[in-house]
Design brief:
single chain, 22-stranded antiparallel β-barrel, 7 helices
C-alpha cells in the first residue's frame, strides 16, 4: 500500500506540471475585506515580469487568516507564523502550541507524534476534545467516532498554525468545545525555488527536510529519526507531501494535495511505578519489545468557484486511509499481562525490582485500520439585508468514517500474530448543515450561527455477530460580536453551545446494546479586547467561562481504577497574549522583543460528583468543588529575542507549567502504581541562535531544548511518563530560487 501511494505521488509530480502549464491564469478579482471566520483565499508569490501568467488564487480553508485579520474575529484567536516557527527551530508541534495562550501541551514520547493538547483547562489526553485540521480538513483518524490522536504530521512542513476559540469556531466541527487548531501548509510558488534543512543533535537525532516547488507545485519531504524521552524508545518517520494549485478558467481554481506518512517506532504504552522511578530513574523503561507502526495515505481536493466579488463557493473533497498497529507487553503499571508466564511480574514492578520482558511470553497486538472520506461545500455571499453589510455562510458536510479494530494476543515476547480476542467494525455516517450571517453595522458586528449534526453510528462484533446502531441529532447555536472602538482597540465576545460527539464504543457496547450517554454539552462564553496602543505593542486579553452540563473526562487511558467519568464541571479563567518590539517603541538598534502567552484558570472544578460512564457509580474520591485532573492553574510562555547583529538573532524562551492532580480526589501523595498523585510544576528553558550568511542564502542555527535539563513528570495516566531531557540540536537551512528571467 505504501508503494502504491508513493507511485501515486511520483505520477502526480510528473503529470501535474503539464496540467499547470496548459491552463491559463484567471483574471484577478477584487474582493471585499473578508472577516477571518469566513474562508480566506491565500495568494501565492508570482514573478513581476510581463510574460508571466497572472497570479492564480489558491483555494484553502483558513479559520483565522493572517495576523492583520485577527482584529475582525468575534472570538479569541492566535497565529503562530512562519517566522516564529523557523527562528524558534521548534522541534514538535507541542513546542509551537505552547506559544499560544490557553493551550497546554503534554509530551508523551519525546517526538510529539501523539499529541496531548489541552485548551482552557480541558483534559489533554490524546487531544480528544480538540478539533485538529490541516488546511481545513480533519486530521485525526476518526473525529466523530473516536477522536484520539495517535498521529501528527511533522511540524516542519507547516507554514503557520492557527488557533481559534470562542463562538467563531461553531462553523467547524465536530469537536467545538474549547478550541480548533488548523495547520496551514505552504503556498506552492510560481518560480522554481526550494530549501533544504538538515538538523542533528543529542539522543541520536537527525532530520532532513526538503521543499521543492515551481509552476504552482510544491513537493515536501521530511525524514526524522532519534531516541525518545526515555529508555528503549526510538522513532523513525517519513512524510511526503505534494501540493498543486491550478487555474481551471476565469472563475475556477483547484488545489490538490497528496500525502504519504510512515512511522516505525519502538515505544511503550505503559509508564513506570513509583518504586521503579526511585530505583532506576525517570527514564527507565524495560519494555524492549514494544513497537508502534503507522502507514497513512491521504488525498485532498479543494475547488473554488468565484463568479463574482460577492459570491464564493469553496468545496473540500478528502479521503484518508490509515493502518495503525501497536504491539506491546503492558498497557499500565497495574497490567497483569505478563504474570501468567512470569509469576510476580507486576508485583516486582510495584516493588521496584528489575523485570525481564524477554521471559514474558505475551505480546498483544492492538491492530487498527481507519478510513475517512468527506465532501464539504462552503458558500459565502455578501449582501445588503437590513441596510447592513452582510456576509452569509451556508455550508454542509457529508462524511463517512470507518474503524476496524482487532486485538491478537501472541504467546512469545516478539509475536506478530496470535489468538484473535477482539474484532470490531465501527462506523459513522454524518450529515451536517451550517448557517451563519455576519451583520456589519459599522463599529458593531454581530455574527449568529447555527450548526446541525445528524450522526449515525453502528458497531458490529465480528466474533459474536452482535451489532447495534444509534442516531444522534444535535443543534448547536452560537453568537459572536465585535465592537471597534477605534483603529487601535477592538472588543470581542460571544456565547456558544459546546459540543463533542460520543465515541462509538461509548454509545454502543460490545453486545450491541445502547448506552444512555449522549454528547458532551456545555454553555461557553468569552469576552475580551485586542489593542495596539503604540507602534510595536500588541496585546489580547480574554476572559472565559465554560459551563459543562455534561462532560466526559478521562481517567487513565486503559480504564482500571480511573475509568472514564461523566458529570457537571466548570472552567473559568483568563488568557493574555502580548508582544512588545522595543526597536519600534524606543528606536533601540538591537531590535529586542518580548512575547508573553499567559493562562490563569482559577476554576476547573467538579460541580457534581462524577460518575463512571459504564456503571453509573460515583467515582471514588470525586466530590463537588474538587479540582479536575490535568488542569494546571497557571501556565506561561515568555520569549525574549534580540538581534545584536544584522544577521544574528538570539532567543530565550521560558515555559512554565503549574502543578496538577492525577485523579478526581486531588490526591497529593502518589500511589505505588503511580496512576494517582500530584504532578509538580516545572519550568523549561529553550535557547536558539540563528546566523544568516546572506551571500550563500544559508542560515546556520543552534538550539537547546530544556537547556537546564529539568527532570519532571508530565503524565500519570498509565504510570509515570517523564518529559524530554536536554536536547541540543544544530544544523543549517539553505534556500535557493531560480526566477523565470534567469532561465
Amino acid at each position: 500500500m505504501l508503494r502504491r501511494a508513493l507511485l501515486t505521488l511520483i505520477c502526480l509530480a510528473l503529470l501535474l506540471p503539464q496540467a499547470a502549464q496548459a491552463q491559463p491564469g484567471p483574471t484577478a478579482k477584487k474582493k471585499t475585506a473578508a472577516k477571518a471566520h469566513k474562508l480566506q483565499v491565500k495568494k501565492p508569490e508570482t514573478a513581476a515580469a510581463a510574460p508571466e501568467p497572472k497570479a492564480i488564487e489558491m483555494p484553502v480553508l483558513e479559520i483565522v487568516g493572517t495576523r492583520n485579520k485577527l482584529s475582525e474575529l468575534p472570538g479569541s484567536a492566535s497565529v503562530v507564523d512562519n517566522q516564529t516557527l523557523r527562528n524558534s527551530r521548534v522541534f514538535t508541534a507541542n513546542e509551537a502550541l505552547r506559544k499560544v495562550p490557553g493551550v497546554v501541551t503534554r509530551d508523551e514520547e519525546g517526538f510529539g507524534l501523539r499529541p496531548n493538547i489541552s485548551i482552557r483547562g480541558i483534559n489533554p489526553t490524546r487531544s480528544q476534545k480538540i478539533l485538529l485540521l490541516e488546511d481545513g480538513v480533519p486530521l485525526t483518524f476518526a473525529p466523530y467516532g473516536g477522536n484520539e490522536s495517535y498521529y501528527h504530521p511533522p511540524v516542519d512542513r507547516f507554514d503557520r498554525i492557527e488557533v481559534l476559540k470562542g463562538a467563531a469556531m461553531n462553523v467547524y466541527g465536530p469537536q467545538s468545545l474549547v478550541g480548533t487548531i488548523n495547520y496551514i501548509t505552504p503556498t506552492p510558488p510560481q518560480d522554481f525555488s526550494g530549501e533544504f534543512t538538515s538538523r542533528f543533535g543529542s539522543r541520536k537525532f537527525f532530520s532532513n527536510h526538503l521543499q521543492l516547488g515551481g509552476r504552482g507545485l510544491l513537493f515536501d519531504l521530511t525524514h526524522k529519526a532519534g531516541d525518545g524521552a526515555r529508555d528503549n524508545v526510538n522513532h523513525q518517520t517519513w512524510d511526503a507531501n505534494l501540493k498543486g494549485v491550478f487555474a481551471l478558467d476565469q472563475a475556477h481554481a483547484l488545489t490538490a494535495r497528496v500525502n504519504v506518512y510512515n512511522e516505525s517506532s519502538q515505544v511503550s504504552y505503559t509508564g513506570i511505578t513509583e518504586a521503579e522511578a526511585r530505583n532506576f530513574g525517570l527514564r527507565y523503561n524495560p519494555f524492549t519489545n514494544d513497537a508502534f507502526d503507522i502507514g497513512r495515505q491521504g488525498i485532498v481536493f479543494t475547488h473554488e468557484w468565484a463568479p463574482s466579488a460577492d459570491l464564493n463557493l469553496l468545496t473540500n473533497y478528502y479521503y484518508n486511509h490509515t493502518i495503525r498497529d501497536w504491539r506491546r507487553q503492558s498497557s499500565t503499571t497495574t497490567d497483569t499481562q505478563c504474570d501468567a508466564s512470569v509469576p510476580g511480574f507486576s508485583a516486582d514492578r510495584l516493588a521496584g525490582i528489575a523485570v525481564n520482558v524477554n521471559a514474558c511470553n505475551s505480546r498483544q497486538g492492538r491492530l487498527r485500520e481507519y478510513g475517512t472520506s468527506g465532501i464539504e461545500p462552503r458558500l459565502s455571499y455578501q449582501h445588503g439585508l437590513f441596510g447592513a453589510r452582510n456576509e452569509l455562510l451556508v455550508a454542509g458536510r457529508v462524511y463517512y468514517e470507518t474503524q476496524d479494530r482487532r486485538q491478537q494476543n501472541g504467546s512469545t515476547p516478539t509475536a506478530r500474530d496470535g489468538v484473535l480476542v477482539e474484532d470490531n467494525e465501527r462506523r459513522a455516517m454524518v450529515y451536517t448543515l451550517i448557517l451563519q450571517n455576519q451583520f456589519d453595522f459599522g463599529a458593531l458586528a454581530l455574527t449568529p450561527s447555527l450548526r446541525y449534526e445528524n450522526i449515525n453510528y453502528d458497531r458490529r462484533n465480528l466474533l459474536t455477530g452482535a451489532q447495534g446502531d444509534e442516531t444522534l441529532n444535535e443543534v448547536i447555536p452560537a453568537l459572536g460580536l465585535t465592537y471597534t472602538l477605534n483603529e487601535r482597540v477592538v472588543f470581542f465576545g460571544g456565547v456558544h453551545r459546546g459540543f463533542a460527539p460520543p465515541r462509538v464504543e461509548d454509545l454502543i457496547n460490545n453486545t450491541g446494546g445502547s448506552v444512555e450517554l449522549g454528547s458532551e454539552d456545555s454553555l461557553n462564553a468569552e469576552a475580551g479586547v485586542r489593542a495596539n496602543p503604540l507602534p510595536g505593542l500588541k496585546t489580547e486579553l480574554a476572559l472565559f467561562r465554560n459551563d459543562f452540563h455534561r462532560q466526559i473526562t478521562v481517567g487513565n487511558v486503559a480504564g482500571g481504577n480511573l475509568p472514564l467519568a461523566i458529570g457537571e464541571t466548570l472552567y473559568e479563567g483568563l488568557e493574555l497574549a502580548s508582544r512588545a518590539d522595543f526597536g519600534a517603541l524606543s528606536g533601540l538598534p538591537l531590535n529586542p522583543f518580548l512575547e508573553l502567552a499567559l493562562t490563569y484558570i482559577p476554576t476547573a472544578e467538579q460541580v457534581s460528583p462524577l460518575r463512571n460512564v459504564l456503571t453509573g457509580a460515583t467515582i471514588g474520591g470525586s466530590a463537588a468543588g474538587l479540582r479536575l485532573p490535568y488542569a494546571p492553574r497557571f501556565t506561561s510562555t515568555t520569549t525574549l529575542g534580540v538581534q545584536p547583529l544584522r544577521d544574528l538573532e538570539l532567543r530565550l524562551e521560558m515555559v512554565y507549567v503549574g502543578g496538577q492532580f492525577g485523579d478526581f480526589a486531588e490526591t497529593v501523595a502518589p500511589s505505588a502504581n503511580a496512576l494517582i498523585g500530584r504532578i509538580n510544576d516545572y519550568t523549561l528553558v529553550n535557547l536558539t541562535g540563528n546566523y544568516t550568511i546572506r551571500p550563500l542564502n544559508l542560515t546556520v542555527f543552534l538550539a537547546a531544548k530544556n537547556a537546564t535539563n529539568e527532570q519532571y513528570i508530565v503524565d500519570r495516566v498509565r504510570g509515570i511518563l517523564p518529559g524530554a531531557p536536554v536536547l541540543v540540536q544544530g544544523g543549517f537551512e539553505y534556500r535557493f530560487s531560480l526566477s523565470q528571467q534567469g532561465r
